[in-house]
Design a protein that fits this description.
273 residues; alpha/beta; Rossmann fold; Hnrnp arginine n-methyltransferase1; 2 domains; 7-stranded antiparallel sheet; 5-stranded parallel sheet; 15 strands; 26% helix; binds S-adenosylmethionine
């Protein structure tokens, strides 16, 4: 997302600090190549931009200077590089974190080229925090009311509301919870070391405060870009194109949550108990 100025500026800062003038840099998942372009300003070597969608790779080729950037239309898993890379830049981060396979593709390239010095980002953490957000409450109520409005059983409102509430709260949504107030501590869900962690799969049990006030869990990533630079979609930070990922607390006021991620199908399973 080239229009996401927060994201662009974090990558620019990190690339300018981490990439040296003699480095061979590969941008995995280059899209139109904005990150490859940033890297090409820092190294005297040609940057390699790897993009598996043909239309994007073709467009990138027409936009970028072939003397500075080589665009390869292939999957990173199949790439055959002329020069051993020193630095991998990749923005294959999903709204929750691992959905675009950043963990698996980083592991694969490091396995092929063990001397890679730096990944930008180098680490990716997923974190959860309870909060109170009126925007999230309104959104949930609007959704439930709309569905009940469709139903022939709308006279059975109490039963349907409970059913739809528990269904709604078993999903992760992307939206705006920037009015939120944090309640309770941040809890680590999982930490990936890019290049070293093989699989993004996880299963975690989280316990939140028993008090009645919070209504949502913000699930956010925190990407360590190197040189002290962090990119995150935490709800208290400036909004990014990833928006805020959150899970609503059910009206039953349960406070224990199991989150499982299956990396084979890129799916999250949510269970309140
Ligand atoms: C979120 S976009 C980022 C594009 C660009 N780097 C940017 O920062 O604007 C991720 C891109 O990675 C590509 N991609 C994802 N996994 C890939 C892989 N294993 N090999 C090559 N391209 C990949 C997708 O097709 C998509 O264009």
């Amino acid at each position: 997302m080239i229009l996401d100025s927060v994201r662009m500026s974090k990558y620019e800062q990190a690339i300018s600090k981490v990439v040296k003038s003699t480095d061979h840099v590969v941008d995995i998942g280059a899209g139109l190549g904005p990150l490859a372009l940033m890297a090409s300003k820092r190294t005297k070597n040609k940057v390699v931009a790897v993009e598996y969608i043909k239309e994007l790779a073709d467009l990138a080729r027409t936009l970028l200077d072939p003397n500075e950037i080589d665009v390869l239309n292939t999957r990173s898993y199949d790439v055959n590089l002329k020069n051993i890379p020193d630095v991998i830049v990749t923005e294959t981060i999903g709204p929750i974190g691992p959905e675009e396979n950043i963990v698996e593709l980083s592991y694969d390239i490091k396995n092929k080229y063990p001397s890679i010095r730096d990944f930008i980002p180098g680490r990716l953490k997923l974190i959860a925090q309870a909060a109170r957000s009126e925007i999230v409450s309104l959104q949930k109520n609007k959704h439930i009311d709309t569905v009940i409005g469709f139903s022939d059983l709308s006279e059975n409102r109490f039963f349907l509301t409970n059913l739809l509430d528990s269904y709604y709260c078993d999903q992760i949504y992307q939206g705006d919870m920037s009015d939120g107030k944090s309640l309770g501590d941040k809890q680590l869900i999982v930490e990936y070391i890019l290049g070293a962690t093989k699989s993004s799969e996880f299963s975690v049990d989280l316990i939140f405060p028993t008090d009645q006030n919070w209504n949502v869990i913000n699930i956010f990533f925190s990407a360590d870009m190197g040189a002290g630079i962090t990119l995150s979609n935490y709800f208290e930070l400036p909004l990014t194109h990833w928006l805020h990922s959150y899970i609503c607390r059910p009206e039953s006021k349960k406070n224990k949550l199991r989150i499982e991620y299956d990396s084979n199908v890129n799916q999250f399973e949510i269970k309140w108990y």
